[in-house]
Amino acid sequence: MTTQNTNRWQLMRWVQLTAAAMGAVLLVSGCAHHSASSQTYTYGQAQREQVVRYGTVENVRPITIQSDRSSGLGAASGAAIGGVAGSSIGGGRGQILATIGGALLGGIAGEQIEHRVQKSEGLEITVRMDNGETRVIAQEADVPISRGQRVQVISGSGPVRVSPL
Is the pLDDT of residue 31 over 50? Predict the structure, then answer.
């Protein structure tokens, strides 16, 4: 085997292993989902005393809930996959350029995909509390809530939640 073929084989092997590792990390990280649901509690929030207040929904507005930061896994996985795809094109310097270009384009595409996946439909709920105060709470749209509905507002250990009575 020539030195050029050996170097090419080592580069291909490195890119394949990197892609496999990134894929595994992405698969595992997919299980870690941040939730803005009124029905989801973290382990640390369970068995904690919370305050319950009552009120009436004055307004409900649909919103989009977007994660406030990227994990970087989308870009890294996309770059690895793009690099593997690009490395199969051409030979010599052309192959190196194709690998780099594939990695760059894959990274951009992976970042965009991660950005879209981290969005969820939500509700901005305006509640007139029984004591006369008005509160606005944003949460996932996983529980039907409508104007005029009586609700409980749960707060204390963690996020504030609106739950129908």
Answer: no
Please enumerate in sequence order all residues whose Cβ is within 8 A of that of 50, keeping only pairs 6 or more positions apart, or say none.
154, 155, 156, 157
What residue segments make up the domains of the chain, in order of their start? 1-32+69-117, 36-67+120-165
CB 92 within 8 A of CB 160: no
Q: How far apart are the first and last CA of the chain?
A: 74
- Judged against a pLDDT cut of 90, whether residue 156 lies above it is answered with no
- What CATH number has the domain spanning 36-67+120-165? 2.40.50.100
Question: pTM of the prediction?
Answer: 0.55
Higher pLDDT, 75 or 115: 75
Angle between helices 93-117 and 73-87 (to 10 degrees): 150
